[in-house]
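I wish you would study the pair of lines that follows with an eye to the fold:

===
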Amino acid sequence: MPANNNQPLRVCYFGTYRENYSRNQMMIAGLRMNGVVVNECHETLWHGIEDRVRIASGEWLKPGFWKRVISAYWHLLRKYLKTDTHDILIVGYPGQFDVLLARILSWMKHKPLVWDVFMSIYLITIERGLDKQNKLSAKMLRAIEWLALRLPDRLILDTNDYVQWFVKTYQVKPERFYLVPTGADDRTFSPVSESPDKDDKFTVLYYGTFIPNHGVIYMIEAAQILKSEPCIQFEFIGTGPELQAAVEFSDRNQLSNVKFIKWLEKEQLKHHMSQVDICLGAFGITPQSMMTIQNKIYESVAMRKPLISGDSPAIRQVFTHGENIYLCERANGLAIADAITALWKKPTLREHIAQAGYMLYQEKYSLLVNGQRYKTCLHELSQ
């Protein structure tokens, strides 16, 4: 029975999705903030990023993996059969392997199916070079993704550029997509009113997973260019595949202006962000980097921090250079260094960008606003 004005919309958030991944947490929280009843039906299949990398590299051929798959989906099916009545079935990210079962269940219940695609796991496989380790795995992932995209009634993505990539790569009709931007979890990432515990240092922060689309090596090159300015300090928080190369570059060039910090939990990260002067976004030139607006970008503006990021058509659809963000050429350490220097020397511009970015976020990309966007999409399907 469709939701009406007297009854809240009810959805089942279904699959082996990454339960603790920010995209899923924010989509669920945004819906709940807007009065949608969300029942989660989740079963763990994947055990972290390294596990997924191993599987994509060829371990999916081993019997142990398929035993795990059968067990996970058996338990997921049993959980679903016990779930409360719902108007729409939603598959969370990543859901390429969940959509087939979800489609069967939604047909049985005569309910619409929505999939938050968010990112292409096939493209991630290519960008991380896993296709070179196992070409068969890459071909299988592409075939699975091709099929999965054809099953739901509605597909959710965060940028129009990514929609166009899916349209071109898989010949999916563009009208089947609906945009819900990434946004930030402003239950955590929000401005801190107390004064920073600062000395005379000007601190530039990167945090993340050190993946190619972030372009960490170009940030390190910027630090090398600016090492003659002792008051400008760089901090790199997190871990990932390009961390070792970044550390080696820093050591080789004796960069005393660079500090590496292990991954911090959200509350610790928020406190740390509140103390810095500038946050860095993404500067890579991979397709994924060019088509998306990374979490860290929205989180920085949600914290009312001035942000420097690499230019792209996708980011210009949301932000305006010199108004609510500072953009520079990608894959260019000198361009990043020049951008940092420009904001270092212009505190009034820094404050303007920080405040304007925060106001834009509050108006268009907060958890509440994004949840309303998603709810509107779901209401259209439930009528």
